[in-house]
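User: quick one
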Amino acid sequence: MKVSTSEITPEHLYLSRREFFKTAGLLGAGAAVLAACSPAASEGPVDYAAIGGEPSAIAATDELGDPLNSYHDITNYNNYYEFSIDKARVAALSKDFPTSPWTVSVGGLVRNPRTFDVDDLKKQFSPEERVYRLRCVEGWSMVIPWIGFPLHRLLDVVEPQSEAKFVRFEAVHDPENMPGQTSRWYNWPYIEGLRIDEAYNDLALMTTGLYGKDLVPPNGAPLRLAVPWKYGFKSIKAIVKIDLVETMPVSLWMDAAPNEYHFYSNVNPDVPHPRWSQASERRIGEIGRRSTLLYNGYADQVAHMYHGMEDQRENS
Amino acid sequence: MREIEIRLRKDRSLGGTGERRRRAARWLSPEVLQILVHLASLFPFALLVRDYFTGNLTANPIQAATLRTGKTALTLLALSLVCTPLCTYFRFTVANRWRRPLGLYAFFYAAVHFLIFIWVDLGLNWAFIVEGFIQKPYALVGFTAFLLLIPLAVTSTKGWQRRLGKTWKRLHSLVYYAAGLVVLHYTWVVKTDIREPLLWGFGIGLLLLLRNRAIKRALLDRIRRS
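Assistant: Done. Structure below.
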């Protein structure tokens, strides 16, 4: 084939075209970086109020007089690493997570090991509204009207044996529906634990609802724990298994970062996290910070359990 | 527009064939690219302002704004470091004109990041600030990086460049120390999965290596021979 010289791209044009592609590539990379600055629309907030009934709470404040956080904020700002490490993306990523049917088996060192369907639990233990503060270890907090029943009522049914010293909670392991569980940085499933006297404390709440409605997936549906005097990560979500055990369970966070997260993890403004202060917190919905309260303001109900270990680093 | 075209012709002796290509080249003239660099650098800030006023900054807008401005500052700082190697290795001389705006925008986002933390988050409360900095070593590291960037931003003008002569180049090599501290700051903030901050560190380290004289000579030799 013969190509006339006029058809061959002259060198300077050829070079400028190369320059053009280089520039286009660079601008494309820049655009990608910029796109990463804002989350995709499909992963934005979810209007859970429009799903399964209007949210409504009996109380308007907690016992200290602070107002409840909005249902929208509570359902759209969640630390739930099973779905995402981005708190604003959990609501969208967990929206279709299957939570029914759901059973939880209670066993280990008990006289009556049993498996409960969550719907039966709700009938048997008639959940009530409890307004609790939730203090995240990252330094933010919310006031939340949970619906639940005290854990000790469930324990009474299964009758722990005398050797049982701790309660071990295990969350669901479902990497197909929980994209975060494919991360190898953590040993899934999520594990948490309480000492037996903590588990019998009336504040420890088996939680099935929120704002007068059933729990929705980003808050740990259909069954989670709420232990308000401890940092939020102790309040394990999507529980499938509860075991009474003799030795202290190793939680997911104790396993992932043993120097930063301890078993007790009680809220304590005087014991800093190794990387940041715990003296103050930001209440979601407020600008600025407020001082953090010892045991998150529940000292009257829980301080007696920790006599003699106030100064231990592990107490926080 | 005509003027630009004429200058382009002179600069690159743009030929007469290929109307489409010529139009593309004219469209992406250095001046237009410069404007694009400014617009792209301001875009994350515009997005932040918009998301603030439309309530799209999550339930914790202060944290979201802090994270976003910090990430943008790091991105722009890294991009400003890419300019010189682009010029030395690929003769992509236009990039040299992007270095200063990118660096200054990085400083701008770092300043906003710092002000949000100290002013909005800690409310200029001295007790919180002192405690914050003592108990948050990563905050101290980030603050040091910010301090390092101040003289660089101040002396970024042509006048200072002339006045400082050879010292200017040495002074501005501080940017690599600042970038290193920013990566350390970022790595420290992240909880467990430190892959992303480490990737930034790797990239910036690579750019630093490309500035090394011996490596530069060897690589350029190779490029010339091939």
